[in-house]
Amino acid sequence: MNTLNHDNGHGDRADEVSAGPLAFPCRIDIKAMGRQNIRFEALVQGIVSRHVDAQDLHAVRTRPSRGNKYVALTLTITAHSRAQLDAIYRELSSCEDVLVAL
């Protein structure tokens, strides 16, 4: 198993993170960032809902930027395959209103 170790500055290793593939189904956060406007949240939720059944959408959180010009939208979903995630990210990335998709 590949792991990424981070030194916490005190000489011991902490925060081992698996670098391996995801095991499906799994809960995962989808994050999209864009300019703050009244339709951005509905746009992103619409894109994600085309790929995720209603029972697999668990939470939606928004966080405005400090200057309130941008907004980050985080959707917690249950993903069932890599292909499903790829389709979500492909559609989010192709949307001109989505500046960043993580």
Describe the protein in words.
This protein has a four-stranded antiparallel beta sheet with strand order 4-5-3-6, with helices on one face. A two-stranded antiparallel ribbon has the order 1-2. The protein has one domain (22-101): ACT domain (Alpha-Beta Plaits), CATH 3.30.70. Helix content is 23%, strand content 42%. The protein has 102 residues and is α+β, with helices and mostly antiparallel strands. It contains two helices and six strands; from the N terminus they run E-E-E-H-E-E-H-E.
Summarize the model shown:
The chain has helices spanning 40-49, 82-94, and strands at 3-7, 13-18, 26-35, 57-64, 70-79, 98-101. It is α+β, with helices and mostly antiparallel strands and 102 residues long.
